[in-house]
Amino acid sequence: MKKYWTGVFGQVRAQQKRFIRDKMSLFFTFLFPLIFLLVFGSIFNNQSTSFDIAIINNSQTEFAKSFVKGAKDNAKDSILKIKDVKDMDEAREKMKRSELNGIIELPSDFGKVKGEGRDARPTGTINVLYAKGSEQTGSALTAVMNQIANKINMHMGQPEAPLKAAGKAVGDEQLKSFDYTFTGLLAFSLMSMGIFGLANQMPAEKQRGSYRRLRAAPFTSGQLIISMAIHYTIISLLSLTMMIVVGMLLFQFNMRGDWGIFVLMAVLAAFMMVGLGLLIGGWAKNENQSAPLSNLISFPMMFLSGAFFPIYLFPEWLRGATNFIPMTPITEGFRLVMTEHAGLVDVLPQIGTIAVWIVVIYIAAIKLFRWE
């Protein structure tokens, strides 16, 4: 056993020395992910000048119904972009994910007529709901609704403004678009490091005869797989750390969950993704075999794991398929911890799924490994 692990860690040190001397590897490991982050961060950190809102009408009055209809009819020429929702719960969930800037709520008494004869006028208060931490957005949206209410009041010739709008912060602090996307970028970074790096490197090493010489040492396939897994997991975590630091300093990413839980998930996720690269690269004889197999595995993970496109946008039949994507529990786990205050119990299903994938992947990687 001692000889086994002495060989493993000896190989880890050798790989680390080779890695440090390879300038191209250093660039693609550390600088390329940062360039990728800067491009996507600039896109998703951009704030829109329009407001995406939902209207929740709790009133049965004709005035309330006509108010909603008028708002939808004039949406094309307005800075208020109205999104359809089923109910208040769905609207709040979308606002939490930054899909909505605010919610316009019409109370049950909105539009009720007060007064008699010529003095009869509809009255009520328009409630403008916005996320905590988004006071500027809430103030701007409330001001817009007050302008709309004042125009209606002037049209009705009312000096005391029977219609008005009031703003109120609700729920948790709103996520920025970048915050929600950043978790997917981290998962994608781990996938790139694990699959594209190893899947190309290992066949090249086989063609140079490096592994044939190790086998004569003697050196088992298990020792080689474990040593490379340790080395590349460390490198992946260093790259991930750099991305998080840049995200927090440059794009003001706000970590909402527990760092300890995130570190646990990050280590397991990096170890699993490296295992996928070892499985592909260990089985392939050359790059002609590894390249198409890498694309075949990585593209479904990129587009079906929720890293760039939220799973709730997928059709029902496709959502079930995402459960069989190895990167899905990583994306979901990162997102739950980093954006939704999830605790250890909340992410146990994701951690358990990643652990199962690790066992399956590494057994397959050792069994299917080919020395040349």
Automatic annotation (TrEMBL):
InterPro entries: ABC-2_transporter, ABC2_TM, ABC2_TM_bact-type. Residues 138-372 form the ABC transmembrane type-2 domain. It is a multi-pass membrane protein. GO terms for cellular component: membrane. It is found in: Membrane. GO terms for molecular function: ABC-type transporter activity. Keywords: Membrane, Transmembrane, Transmembrane helix. The keyword Signal does not apply. The chain crosses the membrane at residues 26-44, 180-203, 224-253, 259-284, 296-314, 347-369. This is ABC transmembrane type-2 domain-containing protein. It comes from Candidatus Nanosynbacter lyticus.
